[in-house]
Amino acid sequence: MVRLTTTSYVVLGLLGLRGPSTSYDLKRAVGHSVGYFWPFPHAQLYSEPRRLAEAGLLDVTTENGGRRRQTFSLTEEGRRALQEWLAVPETEPMQVRDVAELKLFFSELASDEDILSLAREQVRQHQERLTTYESMQERFGSVDSLASRLIPLELGIAMERAALEFWQNLAARMEQPDQPRGAAE
Amino acid sequence: MVRLTTTSYVVLGLLGLRGPSTSYDLKRAVGHSVGYFWPFPHAQLYSEPRRLAEAGLLDVTTENGGRRRQTFSLTEEGRRALQEWLAVPETEPMQVRDVAELKLFFSELASDEDILSLAREQVRQHQERLTTYESMQERFGSVDSLASRLIPLELGIAMERAALEFWQNLAARMEQPDQPRGAAE
DNA sequence: GGTCACATAGTATGAAACATAACGTCCGTA
DNA sequence: TACGGACGTTATGTTTCATACTATGTGACC
């Protein structure tokens, strides 16, 4: 039995939401949905379905005639695996990977100016992403069938807002260096 | 010239903060610092310093006599590489990887009960982590020399709080299903 | 003084993830 | 018909990750 990773479940899940799809379909679907909060390289959307098909979780239909392309769809077993996964309340902790945060951790080794411009750049970046997310919410918010797919976006927005506030705050603190120092406050 | 990855800079940075250290020292240091927000397996703390040493960014001192152990320290070149990295205002976007969020994205395929218990479990998890982080902040907050190292923790706390609120909110919404539906709100 | 548990210290291995480049095919248009 | 560009797919090498294994020193207790 193959090991199912998170990648596997993304593929299974997308096939569950969309019905039978080719790798290319999945690639595009990822591009404007999960891709926003769980990025992965398109090459995996070709190799992973093959793995899953070998494991009996997907069916493959090869269209011969014209361009070679394979359509994947969930087997009963695949659907079951997906549902079992969904039914387990996740305990894997959320992970935040942020290179800027790392640089901040090492800030003792950098100059104050470096850290200040880091903070300012982060403010810009987070503002921009927040705008993007919020406009996505507006654009798709009216499409009723997509409503539940937009809920995770709320979380993304909340995270962006939290990060934005943090960096704004930090920049502000650094701009008036006559303040009391220390991390707690 | 070797490619320097984020992992490389974590090693360089830790050596910068701590001074000459063995892989094992680094491993422990990671355990109670960066490891909280940038986890990686200890095996890399053995292989990565070797790579960096070969590239001339680290010096190696082998203690012969007793247990074999190697102490690594920054070379001038290593310190320079680190400082150059720190001086670049990061544009790499923050990444949040949260399997629970993924499950939520696929929630159309799951039952309401599944999602509700997912949300409740998330609330528990985030509450717990928030408590851990806050107690860390208290414990180390008084140690003046560590103050700047605690700043990233604030960000971690802010993120945890945002996530906690989101899941609490979601759970609350689901517990009274007579509410108006939709993602925006 | 032996042996047990435990912290210390390092290595090995294989799978999965990631980035990127290269490859091929179809279609419109000039 | 030849070219550019969008459409699809594969290949490749590296990095990361997880896990298990090996081995050494230390103190405690019998």
Walk me through what this model shows.
Two copies of one chain form a homodimer. Chain A folds into two domains: 6-87, Arc Repressor Mutant, subunit A (Orthogonal Bundle); 99-175. In chain A, 60% of the residues lie in helices and 9% in strands. Chain A is built from seven helices and four strands; from the N terminus they run H-E-H-H-E-E-H-E-H-H-H. Chain A has helices at 6-18, 23-31, 44-54, 76-87, 99-105, 112-141, 147-175; strands spanning 21-22, 58-63, 69-74, 95-97. Strand 4 (95-97) of chain A pairs antiparallel with strand 4 (95-97) of chain B. The structure holds a DNA duplex (30 and 30 nucleotides).
Counting structural domains of chain A, the number is: 2
Mean pLDDT of chain A equals 89
Termini separation of chain A: 52 Å
| Proper CATH architecture of the largest domain in chain A | Orthogonal Bundle
CATH fold topology of the largest domain in chain A: Arc Repressor Mutant, subunit A
What's the CATH first level of the largest domain in chain A? Mainly Alpha
H/E order of the elements of chain A?
HEHHEEHEHHH
Q: Ranges of chain A with pLDDT <50 over ≥5 residues?
A: none
Taking all Cα atoms into account, the compactness measure Rg of chain A is 22 Å
> Which structural category fits the helices and strands of chain A?
mainly alpha
CATH superfamily of the largest domain in chain A: Winged helix-like DNA-binding domain superfamily/Winged helix DNA-binding domain
Main beta-sheet annotation of chain A:
3 strands, antiparallel
Number of helices of chain A: 7
Largest interchain contact: A-B, 74 and 75 residues
Strand arrangement within the widest β-sheet of chain A reads 1-3-2
Total beta strand runs of chain A: 4
* Gross geometry of chain A: elongated
Indicate the percent of residues in helices of chain A: 55-70%
What oligomeric state do the depicted chains represent? Answer: homodimer
Q: How much strand of chain A?
A: 5-15%
